User: Fold these one by one.
Assistant:
Number 1:
Amino acid sequence: MDGTYAGSYGRIRSYYTDFLDDAFMASLVGRKNDEIGQMLLKTNYREDLEALSSTYSGRAHLENAINRHFVKKNKLAISSPPPGVKDFLKLYVSKWDIDNIKILLASKELGHKISLDDTFIVNSRGIPMGVFAGNISPEEFRVLLGLPSLESSIDYLSRHPVGVAMASRLDEYRRTADLSFLFTAMDTFYFSEVLRTLLFIRGDESPVRSYFRDYIDLRNIMVILKARDQEMDFAIIKERLSPGGSISPAALEDLFRNSPVADIYQSAGKVAGGESEQHPANLSDLEIMTRMHLYRRYHPSFMASSISVNTIFDFVLTAERERDILRGIVIGSSYGMKNDSVLRLTGMGV
């Protein structure tokens, strides 16, 4: 690879020591939030907790500190790679913009006001994740929050490709009042662009491409399972399937129409690389389990690769995994959940 960037990739590898190990995170399970905070103060989360201590308390303090730390990790990742890889990473983290926009649109649909410091918004110091990647500015997010309706928000977002994608489905939303048309438009745009951007990376990026194909397959299987659970017809959910996976639309339709639910669960497990006999009790557990298995399946190959896009993408995925686990532990503490339930919620029990 280009020696100009070898040092940057090497620095990313050195930052792996900053991640919390699984044993430490497991030791947080079952503790009260104030205990969790005290234990995190002894880690590299100290600066985040101290920076937010005068603004938040309790669960909100922990969740915002976890988000802040997560954003910092992603900023570090985006600052390191060569231009082609940076374009891919900027697009990848735009999924947090999309998640934030979904939350914002749903809140407007419900008439519920939110702000940038809402714990469901992934941000640092009131600045959403995508800002650091140059995807959308802080001022634009603040304008969006102040707009009176969902449609005015989509009109404002039409200056961005994701807004154009939503606008193309606006008539269907108006006819049905179903937000899924708008959300599907964003997701389809996102996955198509991620896969397109990967084509322009020159190097050993095949593990990343393989990861995304499996990720899309898992997402599509989850769409099928949710549709079966709600007794929806395949014609309704066909367009909600994301392009780019290894399982063809025809194979997905056959899975939907002709396979018992248990077999569809097993298909998800096989794609993720987990044990085929594992059969979670519900769809939420399956989603968490497959996401964790997929990470565990690809993490060794990413780390074994020569220093490349695989290295830095694994760093981003590891940061996501740590955030998901810590947030699950905090949520479990807040609601007094049993330890085994928290382990399922975080995926640490699979």
Note: The beta strands are 123-124, 127-128.
Number 2:
Amino acid sequence: MRNITITCLLIYVINLLPVAAFEIELEETFGDNDSVSTVQILSSTDSERFRPVINGFINRNPELSVRYVTASTAEIYTAIATESTTFDLVISSAMDLQMKLANDGFTKTVTLAGNENVPNWARWRSEVFGFALEPIVLLVSKQDFLDLKFPKTRRDLLALMRNNPDIFINRIGTYDPKISGAGYLFSTQDSRQSDTFWRLAEVMGRLNTKLYCCTSKMIEAVDSGELALAYNVLGSYANAELPSDSNAQVIALEDYTQILLRTAVVPLASKRPDLGTRFLDYLISVEGQDILDKQAKLPALNNFEISKLANRKPIRLDSGLLVFLDKLKRSAFLREWDAALFQN
């Protein structure tokens, strides 16, 4: 009999070795209690989003179960890079941290049966594999824009915030790049795209912007009207979680929309890399991509809607992602961020 076992939220988990303690958000086990083997997956993607894919995999592999552990992108990187945890597959929206794991020798080279399903731009060597796209968008509260035009560009957004401080004071949200690996990636890539980012950061600082760990919290705050807008939100989460009559409106800014890749790696420390590879093969298969796109609402690599976005700017999966992970560059970026956001 299949079951789902949910452990507690925000706990410290010991993963096989006593020294491997790291903070997780949720742990679930899918499949038969009497399964022959269990695929151990560590992921930053919410289990609710990923559930259809896991169920599809188990339907194809009924002899297996899946242990699915969710954690922040930063915790995931730390768990693999410093704690020798033994997961079979690691999934993250922080492309740069996944690249660093591979570059620093913490991932295995794998051969996928469906290798041709992953285009060259969605892989790095045979270690980091993209399997889903993710637009980074603006989320606004409709009730606060009854008398305002929705911004089309970041310049429009700047003008709105400057001209309407009474609406936006204490009511803007964005990722905290100090605690969120994905948030750090979005911010640093923004800074590479345009100088407008730092002007945005300064205005957001004057308006006492609130910093968040994750997209789901920002979605809730905009939908409830607590926030008037949230900048750099995962578009697929917003589209999947918001009902048609929601107060929140998703906006893909037309000057550019960053597109990240959700990526997967098989850790070097995995005890069953064959199982991690088997799950990854399912992710990139025609069936897996179809489930991701239609049921999990995580845009597949060939998603048509994303291909139509104006000025989409894919974040390239290459060694350039490592630039801002240099300790000196990271420190300098965060100092500049602090100066913009926390003004005296």
Note: Residues 1-20 have pLDDT under 50 and may be disordered.
